[in-house]
């Protein structure tokens, strides 16, 4: 296979040896690198919160007006900080269940980190375009959806490639996989809304909180029901093994 014209085919053993370093045990370096990227992204989010230099003769009304002008930037910062923070928590929990890596897992993780680092860009313009242009909320929604979907893809790949601990069973895998579904669904659905009314697209993000709460309860109920069917089977297998 992979033989050039007039050359003997390359044996699978040789190809496997060439790719031997693409896979290994332990994910500590991946986690440390990811944590550093998350920390940098959270720091970058705060850069737009810097207040301008205050003139010596500024009045109380002037200070109030200046602070009110910064409210949109503060709102964008809080929203993005919560999203990045939640993503970091999910990333940390997922990698507690992953005990090995391969090239696809690392590439997928890098794609997720790309969206993490890029998020400060749409954050900085989110409330700056006014109610007439859809592109700030569209770019923001696209970035958040990409962030969540690439993270879910790495979890899905780790399970299918056998990179997880043995105690990560099917119900637990599905619970973690679908935990963030409301985030990307709400933001993706807000994209066409933004072309009709950009402000309503951003208001639509408010439904993320109640939807996430309801979705989380439903997913947990499914997990409990599935585990109650799995645990007796495990106990029976343990008794037979003993």
What does this structure look like?
With 242 residues, this protein is mainly alpha-helical. The protein has one domain. The chain is 72% helix and 2% strand. It has helices spanning 12-18, 28-45, 60-69, 71-97, 103-118, 120-125, 135-160, 170-177, 181-196, 198-204, 208-241, and strands at residues 24-25, 100-101. Helix 5 runs antiparallel to helix 7, helix 7 packs parallel to helix 10 and helix 9 (181-196) runs antiparallel to helix 10 (198-204). The longest helix has 34 residues, at 208-241. It starts with 11 loop residues before the first helix and ends with a helix.
List keywords for this structure.
two-stranded antiparallel ribbon; 11 helices; 2 strands
Structural class: mainly alpha
Helix content, binned percent? over 70%
Low-confidence residue ranges: none
Q: N-to-C terminal Cα separation, in Å? A: 47 Å
Number of domains: 1
* Shape assignment: globular
The residue-averaged pLDDT reads 86
């Amino acid at each position: 296979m992979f033989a050039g014209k007039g050359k003997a085919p390359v044996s699978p053993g040789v190809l496997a040896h060439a790719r031997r370093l693409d896979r290994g045990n332990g994910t500590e370096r991946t986690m440390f690198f990811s944590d550093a990227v998350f920390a940098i992204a959270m720091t970058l989010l705060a850069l737009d919160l810097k207040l301008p230099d205050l003139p010596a003769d500024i009045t109380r009304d002037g200070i109030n007006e200046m602070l009110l002008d910064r409210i949109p930037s503060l709102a964008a910062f809080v929203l993005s900080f919560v999203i990045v923070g939640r993503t970091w928590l999910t990333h940390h929990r997922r990698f507690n269940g992953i005990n090995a890596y391969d090239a696809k897992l690392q590439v997928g993780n890098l794609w997720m980190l790309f969206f993490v680092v890029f998020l400060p860009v749409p954050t900085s313009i989110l409330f700056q375009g006014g109610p007439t242009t859809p592109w700030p909320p569209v770019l923001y929604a696209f970035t958040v959806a990409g962030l969540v979907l690439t993270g879910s893809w790495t979890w899905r790949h780790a399970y299918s490639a056998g990179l997880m601990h043995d105690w990560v069973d099917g119900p637990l895998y599905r619970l973690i996989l679908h935990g963030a579904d409301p985030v990307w669904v709400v933001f993706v659905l807000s994209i066409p809304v933004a072309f009709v009314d950009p402000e309503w697209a951003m208001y639509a993000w408010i439904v993320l909180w109640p939807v996430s709460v309801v979705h989380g309860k439903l997913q947990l109920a499914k997990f409990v029901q599935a585990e109650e069917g799995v645990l007796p089977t495990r106990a029976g297998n343990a008794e037979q093994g003993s």
